[in-house]
Batch of 2 targets.
Target 1
Amino acid sequence: MTIFHTEMRHGDSGFERNHASYQKLREAVEAAQQKAVLGGGEKAAAAHAAREKLMPRDRINALLDPGTPFVEVGQLAGDGMYDGAAPSAGIITGIGSVSGRPCMVMANDATVKGGTYYPITIKKQIRAQAIARENGLPSIYLVDSGGAFLPLQEEIFPDEHHFGKIFRNIAEMSSLGLKQIAAVMGSCTAGGAYIPAMCDETVIVNGNGTIFLGGPQLVQAATGEIVDAQTLGGADVHTRLSGVADHFAQNDLHALEIVREIVGRPGPGTISPPPITPRGPLYEAEDLYGLIPDNPKQPIPAREILARLMDGSELNMYRERYGSTLICGTGAIGGYPVGVLINDGVLFSESAQKAANFIELCSQSDIPLVFLHNISGFMVGAEYEQGGIAKDGAKMVNAVSTSRVPKFSVIVGGSYGAGAFAMCGRAFGPRMMAMWPNARTSVMGGEQAATVLALVREEQLARKGQSFSGEDVEVFKKPIRDHYAAHSTALHSASRLWCDAVIDPVDTRQWLTLGLSLAHGSSKEQTRFGVFRM
Ligand code: COA
């Protein structure tokens, strides 16, 4: 067992400079988070409250077990998109404890354009459902939504991962025995009506809750019938006449109490305690602020991260002396066994082969994998191509893709190109994925992309007998570099849901422990690897 001891010295000028610079990154994330939780703003909130409706975050607080945390998924989704019209994508999603059971809670925010679904809203709800499904969590839908955001219908309605997928997920999760519960606390129109209609059990709030395929305006336009919203689809109609809902609630709090009763009925799904006694690391996580270089070109010390992440700062190192640009080993986080892979340099053939073997071993022993990305990519150059680095990288990507143990990814530095794939990037199905505020991801670095494109341009112009040099090259490269710089940040990634959260480095253990505890209680899957190119 290796115990990681720190080489850090408080008071070093580098440490202090890094620390100060990291606070600015944290402040930028906090500012975005504060904006997200405000929802549609004061005016919309006042109109909402005037209808005697609780704000969506207050609904969630009243639903959860008192004093327990709510871990948000995709809080920053929609940040800076649609001219800022969809803070938090107009829906709040996250994991919290209800009647002692971890649940996925999805609450429309009607203060954001009537709770209508933008493309990013759909993506966020589908992501929340995927987390619920993989971890065997009941889903609770607190519905208050005008359905599709009509001006963008072609980006939310017709395709595979559009609106219909939400309803299909409800049916499929119900068929897997995962409870699907809706509380209709406001509007629930058109396609949106299928959320409560398809759930296992549905509560509707008298006065504010409505469920209908076509609202009063549409009915009048279609048939000439003039009818008010409550007569068309209010709580009395649906619990007494139509049977679309099961429980009549007097108000929001009553509805949430009924949901808690439904979740609390006997059945599986409580969190099981960690199998090993949890131990804290030997060093303070706060040190990480001063250890992450303010210059992204400088390496992030992988061992210092492990010293502040692992239980007891310990790792049972796998092939420590081989392929050493990737550290692999088994240990525990919060008392849950894990296999950890963290970059400590570029990926070579040896490191990729070692990783593939390590993933095989963890899969055989049902040990979840934690990937800590800080990777510029695989080594390039004739020597490495001739040595078959593409096939060795493919072995690692293959193992990552097909291993069925729960996987988690945290981008602690950069995550670029095929290195991002091999380290279990978004496309490779990590159960949860986070980025630190300093993290970046893109197909390659901005400077490299600008240089590649400049060389391509130079060759094109040379074929026409024209030259391309000096200032022209710089004028060509700058916008590419700037674009990459702006679009590879953690905030940008979170707004597009390329990750589930931007987490502060000091919260990494807690965040991973939650994911590992949920995975520990969910059913195990058998791994069947494909063909590895030798
Ligand atoms: N698509 C796009 N924008 C919509 C919308 C929709 N389906 N429904 C509402 N909005 C917008 C409104 O234009 C308004 O925008 P603004 O703030 O820029 O003026 C905002 O959302 C709030 O709507 P408003 O009607 O003022 O709020 P409300 O709380 O009184 O009512 C609804 C909210 C959702 C109940 C009501 O707007 C409604 O019934 N909308 C139509 C729903 C519908 O038929 N959807 C069909 C989807 S397939």
Note: The pocket of coenzyme A is lined by residues 110, 113-114, 116, 146-151, 187, 189-191, 215 (CB under 6 Å).
Target 2
Amino acid sequence: MLRCVNLSLSYRIPGPFWRKSTRVFAVNDVSITLPPRQTLALVGESGSGKSTTGRLLLGLETPDAGYVMLNGTRLPKPGTRRWQKLRKRLQLVYQSPLAALDARMKISDAVREPLAIHNIGTPQERALKVGAALEAVGLTLEQSSRYPHELSGGQVQRAVLARAMVTEPEVMVCDEPMSALDVSVQAQVMNTLLEMQKRMRMAILFISHDLRLVRQIAHEVAVMYLGRIVEQGPTELVLHRPLHPYTRALVSAVPVIGARGQQRIVLAGDPPDPSRPPNGCPFHPRCSLAVDRCRVDRPALRTSAEGQSVACHVAEIGAEASR
Ligand code: SF4
């Protein structure tokens, strides 16, 4: 079980000439839990803090505040020996499969490399593990003896998954893993990922802007806006009955087969400058439901009895969960 509590990460951006530097929050007070065999999808526009949250969960960034726990133990500081030992239990799958692999390394060698780095098994055991990982993702022996540029995009992404799974991680962060693939290949890679999860009890953080994929894979969804979670809950609830006006706009942009007269909600303007976030609710400049209170008072997350949380003053959540 991976859990992060009140995670925040900010950067200082130097101001021009005599002006002071400004502090920009990439992630602000984010708490999430990833149980084994579950998939949590993080969704939101570019720059909402999804990828940075994923990197913080893996210990690839050091938070300013908050902490990450793996099975009840706090993650040590990145770069330390204890942290390096934990690395094999936490893996990352990048957006661009070709960039994730060394172009000069054959696929089988690239899949074997993490075992050597983490000193796992004898050479014979490593060969068995590599064979099993390649078979699990559906790559043949012949394909594994090629270089990345000699394979299709879907095959390379499956090789990346084999490399990530060969150490049998407990948590995998998949950062837009399908965005560079054709729709038909996306389905194959998605099935591979689900199969791996079933077999290895792995928890997945699935970062995506594609709600069609999220609907297929995620048990829970968390929606991020300007570094904060604004809505979170079971996928069926959040995608079928979104409570936050921002989530409603995201969901309305996904065409539903057979839904006649589906109305798309077009958001006004661009996301605000993160170095000068609006007062009150950060979504208020784009929100058609904003009331006076929204301009001064930032809404806290409230959770319904069904487990759907929303940060909005006007959202009706029915009975609230008792705390
Ligand atoms: Fe819109 Fe106000 Fe809700 Fe923010 S708190 S989402 S501005 S209605």
Note: The chain has two domains: 2-218, 219-323.
